[in-house]
Please model this.
Amino acid sequence: MSNERELIDAARQGSVTAFTGLVHAYRSRLLRFLLTRCPTYADAEDALQDTFLNAFRYLSSYDPRWRFSTWLYRIAVRNALKLHRPHEPLDEEPVDPGGDPLQLCIAASERENLWLTARRVLADDVCMALWLRYVEDMSVNDVAAVLDRSVSWTKVNLMRARQTLDEALDHEASHSGSKLYGHI
Amino acid sequence: MDTFEQRLRDDGALIRAEVSAELDARIRASLEAAAAESAPAPVRSRPSAWWWWASSLSGLAAAFALLAILNFETTGTGQDERRVAAAVTESPTMPLLRVEPAVLTAPLEQELDDLESDLRKARDAVSEDLGLQF
Model:
């Protein structure tokens, strides 16, 4: 963490090399997060580039009382929202001709990845809250700060998201079970 | 951590996201461009105190010199004006202008008529273009 603080201080003085150190620390995590939010892989890459560029430009406005990751994700969320087109839902018709970027990046597994289900059944900001809380391991306060929501909104929606996901999984399990039963 | 949270975490880890070398180069290039844009301008050295005093004193000297010149010219100009006025009144060759006022103003009236005519033509043209009547 102290290393991160040194890199931030040096980057504030205009050092691209120091900021590149921060880029290397966060680029994969941020790209994974953006892949769940953007309609195409290229959009996720563009959003990642814009996120780092904006962070570098406005680094002087970063308040060290916040975690740097919280500030960075806040910028990433804004960039992802800029790219998100409401009339083209992510879960219905992926725009990428190569297929859904999230689907393409998920390692082969026997069951459906939980994040595909989450993206299908949850609202965008709730899905983001869930990701930040459980994958990025952020505190509820940090999640609220990233999403520009109240702490109570975040707590309530995280709880509801779990319930909704549980119900969706139960429904899918019973559906696949009945199909199997039908085959027998 | 319960099994649900663990599953969310594990499934998140199954999403492979690798930043390509090309994207890495793009990010680096955009950062360097931004750094070049925001490079601070070269700092100008502050003029020293003697410079302030020198400029103030030379300004004062210039102001006094200007006042002196103006005072000198004021006295001279009064004499000149009186001399010119006397010369004008005493001049025997002053030509008399024996023309009617109408002759003098005729070209101006003609010019006014021409302008009004141009305005009428312009208004008609605009009315035709727009299909409106003023």
Remarks:
- The mean pLDDT of chain A is 82.
- The CA atoms of residues 38 and 44 of chain A lie 5 Å apart.
